[in-house]
Amino acid sequence: MHLEHINLTVSDLDRSIAFYTDLLDLQTRWKGPIDGERLGAHIGDDRSYLAMFEGSTDGPVDHDYSRPGINHFGFIVDDLDDARRRLDRLGATVHLEADYEPGRRIYCFDPDGNEVELVEY
Questions:
Q1: At a CB cut-off of 8 Å and minimum separation 6, what does 94 contact?
Q2: In Å, what is the CA distance from 48 to each residue of 11, 54, 93, 95, 108?
Q3: Is 15 helix (H, G, I), strand (E, B) or coil?
Q4: Domains plus CATH for the chain?
Q5: How confident is the model over 88-111, as pLDDT tens digits?
Q6: Comparing C-alpha atoms, which of 73, 37, 30 is closest to residue 54?
Q7: pLDDT in tens, 29-62
C-alpha cells in the first residue's frame, strides 16, 4: 500500500505548482479545467502526486493540532540541507527544524499556509 495523492485547494494554482515543483523537483502530470470555472493540476510522478484545485474564496488554513483534521503532510528528501536552501530561495517560512530519530526534519508553510514536513532519513 502507498498513498496515491493528497488533494489541496489552493488560492493561486500557478504559484503552488511553482512552489512544489521547485522545492521537490516534481513534474506536472496534468493541468486543465475540472469544471466550468476552476483549474486543477496533478504534480508528482507515476506513483504519487499532489492534486491541486484553485479555490474560489480565500481563507486561513486551520493548524489546530487539538482538533481532528490534517495537521501537515511530509515528503522524504535525499538532502535536507539542499531542501533548506530551496526553501530560502522560495521565501518560504520555516518554523521548526528538528533532529531526532528516525531522521532530521524541517517544518515549513507553503504559499497558502499548509504545513509541510521535509525529512531526511
A1: 84, 87, 106, 107, 108
A2: 22, 20, 25, 26, 21
A3: helix
A4: 1-56 (3.10.180.10), 72-121 (3.10.180.10)
A5: 999 999 999 999 999 999 999 999
A6: 37
A7: 999 999 887 899 999 999 999 999 998 887 777 7
